[in-house]
Fold this protein.
Amino acid sequence: MARIRIGQQATSGTLQQTITSRIKAGKVVPIISNAIITDLVLGQGQYQKLVETYAQHVRYAPDAMTGQLKLPQITQYVSVVREQVPDPIAAKELYIEFIKSWLFDLAEQDGLSEDVQAELDEQFDSLNVTRLADGLGYPKFDRGREDPLLVLASFPLPIYLTTSHHYFIEMALQRAGKEPRTMICPWRESVEARPFVANRDGTIAFDESHLPSELQPLVYHLHGFDQYPESLVLTEDDYMEFLVGIARDKGRNTDPIPTHIREALVESSLLLLGYHLRSWDFRVLFWGLIKADFKRRYKSISVQLDPQEVDEKYLQNYLSEADFDVYRGTVHEYIRELQQGWEG
C-alpha cells in the first residue's frame, strides 16, 4: 500500500484501489476461464465459434441444438454415442485433433504463408495445440502493452489458476520476461502432479523444488493440459469426477490441490475472469474450491464472460455468499482499469 502521510485524514478507497495494492503485495490470484483465454488469443467470440463448429463436426444431436451450445454436453455425447470413439480418452484425443485443425483453418483465413503451412502440415501429428498455435502465430500479442494477457502477465503475482487446457498464459508470462512453471491438477490418478516447463521442442522439464514467485510464477491448470489428453476435464462426467476428487481428499496427504494453492485461495483476493454463471466450469470451480473455503478473509471480484448473462441482482446475491463483488463490464474493460490503476 502507498505510504500514509501522518497528520492527514484518512480517505475512503475503492475496492479497485485495494486490489491494486494487493497486486503489488502478490496477494491476488487470477482465475482465468478457458473461454476467455480463447477469445483473448484468437478474437472476441472465437470460443463459441469453436464450440459450434465442433458440434457440427461430430453431428451433435440436431434436435438438441437449441440455445447456446455447451462443450461439456457435446463431449459427453461424443464419448457415449459416437461409434468411432472406442473409449473416453479417444473422445478427448478427437477433440484435441479438431482444435488443431480448426486453428489451422483459422490461420489460413488470416493469410498463413504457404511455407509455414507446408512445414506445419508435415509436423501436424507431433504438435500439441499450443505448439501448433505458436507456429501459426497465436497468440499474436499485437496490441503490445494493451494486450489483456500481457497486462495480467506483467503483474508481480506468484500464482495464476486457469481452466484453460493450453499454454497461452505461460507464453504471455515468458513475453513479460518471467520463467513460469506449469502444473496440472491430478484430479485422476493417471495425471502427473509435478511443476514443469514445456520446452519449445515439445519436451517436458520437471522442477519439483519450484516455489512460486514473481519471477517464476506457477500456472496451475485445474482442467488439464493439451499435451496430455487424459488430463482434460471435458465431459459432464469429468466435471463430476473432478468435483468429487477435489472435495473427497481435501486436507489429506492425497489432496489433489497443493497446500500452497489452497492457502493462496484463502489468503488472497481472487479475480474470477470470464466465466458463465451457469456453466459447468464455473459451478465446479465455485462449489469445489471457492465456496468450500469459508475461512476466506479477502474481498474478491468476478467479471463474467457475458455481463448481460443473468439478472444483476441474482448474480450479485449468488456471488456475495462467497464475498465477491460483480464487475458490470467486460474482461477487457476490467483489465484495462486494472492497468490504469497499476500505472497511475
Q: What stands out?
A: The CA atoms of residues 184 and 289 lie 15 Å apart. The first strand starts at residue 28 and ends at 32.
